[in-house]
């Protein structure tokens, strides 16, 4: 092979390899995080395949001898680059796949029109939330941590509907947005969500003596964290997970080895927090939950010194928090805990 051909191969192959990996990586990211852009993802996958085939053609044209050796080398380089990009992707995009920051202007407008609801903004807007006041002086307050696809305004609006339906009578309700959600600035990570959760409790503690904590789905992590680090009167958990590793494994069951566990950036080890929780939590889970498996909730329940596990089979993950039986269980639990 002449020198000119060698130089072309040295330049083309790495470039094509990088283009292939990047296109495949972007396509996978789009399919995972933005299914609505599946057409673009399909185009990127096609581009990745075309790049890979073209790279093999380059090998055949510029290196007629030892073609098999060249193909093997290229495939090894491609595999290494793909692994490198995959590791970086899991590390960076993991929290992105877990959290889905959004806002709900309609719910904000609805809450603004309710005389019993007050807007909360502290620390230059970093702490952003809503509070429903039942009208009774000294009423206990329930601090609620919502799921990853909700917002503080939408959740409190739904809770107000529950109050009108007869649940949570005599209780104040407070919901604060995670960073990046609603009107709160920042980006949701394990550290920022924990910080916001404690700040929300501390804000309420200035004026309220009796605070119960409730969490649903991703919100059960910060709810557990608050109960482990602050004095709470009660802790109710709907579809809770044992830790962040379980969430990752439920999506892709490869994060059990110590090496791959190191790639999990959202650890949220509720099973560890559970050891410091002094109250008896209420844990509600369903065997038909496809997002947080029943086994994960059961494992968390066994981590407390004492916990009450209630199964509501037949309910989906999204259906649990609005289910009348679930609402009744949570309302009755807080009523007994606050009495």
Name the descriptors.
alpha/beta; 12% strand; 339 residues; 51% helix; 12 helices
Structure classification: alpha/beta
Strand content range: 5-15%
Tell me the helix content: 40-55%
CATH class of the largest domain: Alpha Beta
CATH topology of the largest domain: Rossmann fold
Average pLDDT rating: 83
Widest β-sheet, arrangement of strands = 1-2-4-3-5-6-7-8
> What is the number of beta strands?
8
Shape type: elongated
The helix count comes to 12
Distance between the termini: 87 Å
How many domains make up the coordinates? 2
Q: How does CATH name the architecture of the largest domain?
A: 3-Layer(aba) Sandwich
Structural account:
This protein has an eight-stranded mixed β-sheet with strand order 1-2-4-3-5-6-7-8, with helices on both faces. The protein has two domains: 3-98; 105-338, Rossmann fold (3-Layer(aba) Sandwich), CATH 3.40.50.1820. It is elongated, with a radius of gyration of 25 Å. It contains twelve helices and eight strands. It starts with a helix and ends with a helix. The chain has 339 residues and is an alpha/beta fold. It has helices at 3-33, 38-62, 67-98, 105-112, 152-164, 190-205, 220-229, 244-251, 258-261, 270-273, 294-301, 324-338; strands spanning 117-122, 127-132, 141-145, 172-176, 211-216, 234-238, 282-285, 308-311. α1 (3-33) packs antiparallel against α2. 37% of the residues are buried.
């Amino acid at each position: 092979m002449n020198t000119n051909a060698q130089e072309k191969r040295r330049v083309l192959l790495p470039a094509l390899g990088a283009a292939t990996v990047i296109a495949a990586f972007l396509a996978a990211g789009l399919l995972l995080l933005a299914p609505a852009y599946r057409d673009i993802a399909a185009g990127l996958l096609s581009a990745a395949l075309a790049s890979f085939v073209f790279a093999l053609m380059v090998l055949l044209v510029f290196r007629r001898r030892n073609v098999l050796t060249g193909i093997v080398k290229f495939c090894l380089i491609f595999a290494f680059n793909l692994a490198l990009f995959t590791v970086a992707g899991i590390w960076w995009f993991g929290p992105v796949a877990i959290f889905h920051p959004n806002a709900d202007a309609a719910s904000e407008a609805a809450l603004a029109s309710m005389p019993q609801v007050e807007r909360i903004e502290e620390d230059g807007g970093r702490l952003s939330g809503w509070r429903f006041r039942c009208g009774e002086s000294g009423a206990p307050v329930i601090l609620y941590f919502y799921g990853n696809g909700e917002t503080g305004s939408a959740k409190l609006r739904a809770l107000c509907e529950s109050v009108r339906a007869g649940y949570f009578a005599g209780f104040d309700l407070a919901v604060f947005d995670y960073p990046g959600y609603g009107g709160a600035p920042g980006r949701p990570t394990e550290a920022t969500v924990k910080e916001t959760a404690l700040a929300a409790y501390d804000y309420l503690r200035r004026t309220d003596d009796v605070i119960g904590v409730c969490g649903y789905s991703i919100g059960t992590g910060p709810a557990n964290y608050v109960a482990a680090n602050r004095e709470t009167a009660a802790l109710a958990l709907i579809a809770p997970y044992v830790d962040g590793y379980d969430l990752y494994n439920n999506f892709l069951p490869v994060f059990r080895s110590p090496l791959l566990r190191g790639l999990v950036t959202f650890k949220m080890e509720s099973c560890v927090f559970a050891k410091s929780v002094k109250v008896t939590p209420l844990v509600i889970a369903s065997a038909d939950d496809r997002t947080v498996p029943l086994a994960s909730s059961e494992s968390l329940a066994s981590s407390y010194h004492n916990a009450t596990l209630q199964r509501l089979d037949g309910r989906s993950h999204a259906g649990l928090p609005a289910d009348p039986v679930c609402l009744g269980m949570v309302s009755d639990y807080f009523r007994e805990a606050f009495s």
